[in-house]
Amino acid sequence: MFYIALHSSSDKNVELTEIASEQDIPKHFLSKILQLLVREKLLYSMKGPTGGFRLTKPPNEITLIEIVDAIDGLDIFHQCGIGFKTCDDQNPCPLHHDYKAIRERVKKLFSTKTLEALKEEVQEGGSIISMSQLE
After folding, report:
1. Is the pLDDT of residue 131 over 70?
2. Cα distance between residue 91 and residue 48, in whole Å
3. Cα three-residue angle 7-23-57, rounded to 5 degrees
4. C-alpha closest to that of 114 among 80, 66, 46
5. How much is the pTM?
C-alpha cells in the first residue's frame, strides 16, 4: 500500500511485477495480498496495457488501521499478550495491564497515521527509507 501510495496517481497505476521486483516480494504472495486489498475496497485493480493497482481514495484518507484490518483483522488489539483465551480485565494474565496499555497506544497510532503521513516523512528525509530505495 505504501509503495502504491508513492507511485500511483489518479491516472497512473502500479503493476504487480513492478511492486514485486522493487520490494523483493514473491509475485504470487503479493498478488494474493493485493487482491484482498481490492476486495476490501482499498485498491482498484485494472487489467490491460495501462493496468495495475492504485488507491481507491487519497493517501491522506487511508489509515494504517484500515490496512491492518483488511489483511489481518483487529483481533491483535484485543488478544492476550501471552495467548491465553480467558485473559481480560477481571482475569488478567501477568502481562495484561502492561500489554493492554501498549496495545492501545499502537491502535491509536495506527488509527491516526495515514499513508500520506508516511509518504511525507519519506519525502522530507525524516525516515531511514529514502525515495531511491522505493523507486
Report:
1. no
2. 55
3. 35
4. 66
5. 0.84
Q: Cell 487511508 appears where?
A: 62
11-31 pLDDT, tens digit each: 889 999 999 998 899 999 999
Which is nearest to 53 in space by CA: 69, 66, 37, 40?
Answer: 37
Pull the grid cell for residue 97: 495491564
Residue bearing cell 497510532 = 109
DSSP string, the chain: -HHHHHH-BTTB-B-HHHHHHHHT--HHHHHHHHHHHHHTTSEEEE-STT-EEEESS-GGG-BHHHHHHHHT-SGGGTS-SS--SS-SSSS--TTHHHHHHHHHHHHHHHHH-BHHHHHHHHHTT-SSS-GGGG-
* Amino acid occupying residue 28: H
The x, y and z cell numbers of residue 115, run together, are 499513508
